[in-house]
């Protein structure tokens, strides 16, 4: 428990994560989470307006994949850009072209820091922080963080110039309105610039990375298990046909829903979850844990629990189907965490995954490049705070 505490505290210190909602606690966390959920709902999360945005992004993604004409390509960067554009639409009210230099650099900074945060060098820093000056990974993370936050700050200032409180268009606009209102009441408001930067950091990083990595795993697993891909496509043909998929189609598609859930379980995108801390002194299974101690609740231990899953270490969509082929919920399925710290973007993520996956598999069959068999495909995850698969190439063949 002491090592876990040092690991988490070190990461918070290293990344300077004082603002926002993910790494804060107490009243700051309560106010930022409450505001974030309310603002995201106001700007469409869970509503038809955001579903339309996702569907539009799916159309752009499909056209981009069509340009490869069935030839091999690595889908990772394009999937990240498409996922990023959904959360950018909330934050800035715009989208980036996939080749936009600013978007590419932002994605690079986020991905590199998430990878470095889980490497042995940073784990050593977290246990022995005085050795940090010897570690290149620590320096790289700090430089990336500085560049990333400078961009967020510049974007915020740009919004400030055009800000009209009578014409709120984005999440950032909503924050600025609340900031002005709260500052009139008190000088100790939680609606300050550090929290705005922290929220944008949290939302962009989480909104882009986890969804994109789940999609990246999905295409790899569809190549690895072509019979699963075929069954999903058959259900799409039966229930949707040639029209564009909509969220309400999900209830009619138990097999597709099961496959998406199994990808999330098997891929185990955030195996260590995010850090939590005890709110009071407790004794758990004979161990005394003092108030304020950081702990790491391992989601991987639940998602691969041998007492909960028939084939915990295999990709097996039937985990989420009953004997009649109907979708069933499982208590041990918690990729979005649980309790008060449940992911605030769960609703949005579920909508994105269903729409992106059904749109892509409606249009394409994903196959390994010529000379590569499905047995050659590597399901080893990349080391990091989040775990994408090893880089690969796919062929998007028109269905």
Description:
- With 399 residues, the chain is mainly alpha-helical.
- The protein is 54% helix and 5% strand.
- The protein is built from 13 helices and six strands.
- The protein has a two-stranded antiparallel sheet with strand order 1-4. A two-stranded antiparallel ribbon has the order 2-3. A two-stranded antiparallel ribbon has the order 5-6.
- The chain is globular.
- The N and C termini lie far apart (52 Å).
- Mean pLDDT is 87; it is low at 1-10.
Write a concise keyword list for the protein shown above.
disordered N terminus; two-stranded antiparallel ribbon; mainly alpha; 399 residues; 6 strands; globular; 5% strand
What order do the helices and strands come in, and which of them pair?
Elements: H1 2-15, H2 26-42, H3 48-66, H4 76-92, H5 101-116, H6 120-127, H7 136-162, H8 171-185, H9 193-224, H10 226-239, H11 254-267, E1 276-277, E2 282-284, E3 287-289, E4 294-295, H12 299-303, H13 346-363, E5 364-367, E6 395-398
Antiparallel strand pairs: 1-4, 2-3, 5-6
Helix pairs in contact: 1-6, 3-4, 3-13, 4-9, 5-7, 9-10, 9-11, 9-13
Share of β-strand residues: under 5%
Number of strands: 6
Number of helices: 13
- Cross-sheet strand order for the largest sheet: 1-4
Low-pLDDT runs? 1-10
Could you say which structural class the secondary elements and strand pairing correspond to?
mainly alpha
Distance between the first and last residues' Cα: 52 Å
Which value, in Å, is the CA radius of gyration? 22 Å
């Amino acid at each position: 428990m002491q090592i876990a505490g040092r690991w988490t505290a070190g990461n918070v210190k290293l990344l300077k994560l004082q603002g926002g909602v993910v790494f804060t606690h107490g009243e700051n966390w309560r106010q930022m989470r409450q505001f974030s959920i309310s603002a995201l709902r106001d700007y469409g999360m869970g509503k038809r307006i955001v579903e339309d945005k996702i569907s539009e992004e799916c159309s752009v993604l499909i056209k981009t994949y069509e340009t490869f004409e069935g030839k091999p390509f690595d889908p990772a960067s394009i999937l990240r850009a498409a996922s990023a554009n959904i959360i950018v639409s909330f934050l800035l009210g715009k989208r980036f072209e996939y080749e936009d230099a600013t978007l590419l650099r932002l994605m690079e900074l986020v991905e590199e820091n998430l990878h470095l945060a889980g490497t042995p060098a940073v784990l050593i820093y977290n246990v022995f922080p005085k050795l940090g000056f010897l570690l290149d990974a620590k320096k790289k993370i700090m430089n990336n963080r500085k560049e990333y936050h400078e961009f967020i700050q510049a974007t915020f200032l740009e919004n400030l110039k055009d800000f009209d409180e009578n014409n709120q268009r984005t999440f950032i606009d909503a924050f600025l309105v609340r900031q002005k209102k709260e500052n009139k009441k008190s000088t100790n408001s939680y609606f300050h610039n550090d929290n705005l930067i922290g929220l944008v950091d949290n939302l962009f990083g989480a909104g882009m990375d986890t969804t994109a990595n789940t999609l990246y795993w999905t295409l790899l697993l569809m190549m690895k298990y072509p019979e699963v891909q075929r069954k999903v496509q058959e259900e799409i043909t039966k229930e949707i046909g040639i029209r564009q998929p909509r969220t309400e189609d999900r209830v009619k598609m138990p097999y597709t829903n099961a496959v998406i859930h199994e990808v999330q379980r098997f891929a185990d995108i955030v195996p260590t979850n995010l850090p939590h801390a005890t709110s009071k002194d407790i004794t758990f299974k004979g161990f005394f844990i003092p108030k304020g101690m950081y702990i790491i609740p391992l989601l991987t231990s639940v998602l691969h629990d041998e007492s909960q899953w028939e084939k915990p270490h295999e990709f097996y969509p039937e985990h989420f189907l009953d004997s009649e082929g109907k979708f069933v919920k499982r208590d041990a399925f918690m990729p979005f965490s649980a309790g008060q710290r449940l992911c605030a973007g769960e609703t949005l993520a579920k909508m994105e995954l269903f729409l992106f996956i059904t749109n892509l598999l409606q249009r394409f069959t994903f196959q390994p490049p010529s000379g590569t068999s499905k047995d050659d495909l590597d399901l080893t995850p990349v080391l990091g705070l989040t775990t994408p698969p090893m880089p690969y190439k796919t062929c998007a063949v028109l269905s």
